[in-house]
Design goal:
Elements lengths: L1 E2 L9 E2 L5 E4 L4 E3 L1 H4 L2 E3 L20 E3 L1 E11 L2 E9 L5 E8 L27 E3 L2 E3 L11 E5 L8 H15 L4 E5 L12 E6 L7 E6 L6 E9 L8 H19 L20 H13 L6 H12 L24
Parallel strand pairs: 12-13, 12-14, 14-16
Antiparallel strand pairs: 1-2, 3-4, 5-6, 7-8, 8-9, 10-11, 15-16
Length: 330
Amino acid sequence: MVEESHTAGSSRRLLATVPVLSETPTALTVDFNAGFNKIFDEEDRTGEDYYGRVDKHDYSSFPLFRRRMLSVSRRGPLLVLTQQAFNESDSPVLVHYYLSRYHSNPDFEPFETKNLDHFGFYETYPQRESGRTVLYAMKFDIHKPIVFALSAEIPAGYRDAVRDGVLYWNKALGLPLVHVIDAPDGVTAPNPEYNVIQWVGDRRVASTSHIQDDPLTGEILHAHIFILSRSVKHGDLDEQNNHLRYLVAHEVGHALGLRHNFARGPVSTVMNYFDFEQEVRIGHEVIRSGDDALEYDRNVVRHVYLGEPLDIDTLPAFCTDGQSGCAPLH
């Protein structure tokens, strides 16, 4: 398996060598477990922008030991593999592989991002097109519903709050593009067919979201979100639910492609971090009860997703990870 560069003069990069065990006129028997023996460290998005809007070509990796392929299945056009292994520290590693023939989506309209001066989305790595470097924002295709599936592990007393947090983004979009369903039996994150919101214990550092996208166009193919159970350990039940509304809206914002916005000043986005009391207020007054989304969220998501004009002069301030002097409010 090789990474084929779309830049003239660039060389291919070897990703994996998969042994062929046997061959017939109609089939090959291969050993994916032997071939998939390392994990590359670099993310597939320039998400947090730690080193600027450039591709450092960081091909560093760590080896996988005692590898065992747990499952191999077909999901439509995808070949889905799940592998259990251990890293150099003898900690367990679970790896999910999704393999398919590449087809670009003819209905998807890429959105080129030129800088991070006024707003920010996650981006593809830089590409050379027509003699210039371009980066595309990561976003879903709006020609079909954007559906998030709630895992069965989300407690009954919090499920409505999680739904409210997801559907906040319909207020921002001004259209009912985002939908919420209950995940089918047995579906958990990550899953190549569903955008799952997964309730997990406290083994993780923080609640988080992950995106898999088309690296050439920026189309988000699927996303998954992990919400820590300790997120609702403070306050009474109403405060817990309102805090959860904010937290889910924040993580779904990431899943839709938005970066953090740590700019100081009046509250204009759910993509910042606030103290507990402020997040509870946002959850109640904006997400649960309000008729409209916060100003930055509304203007930016409509600009990138729907092509609406953006008035830079009136847009709230923006400041994201990696930029000088930029840090969360809390």
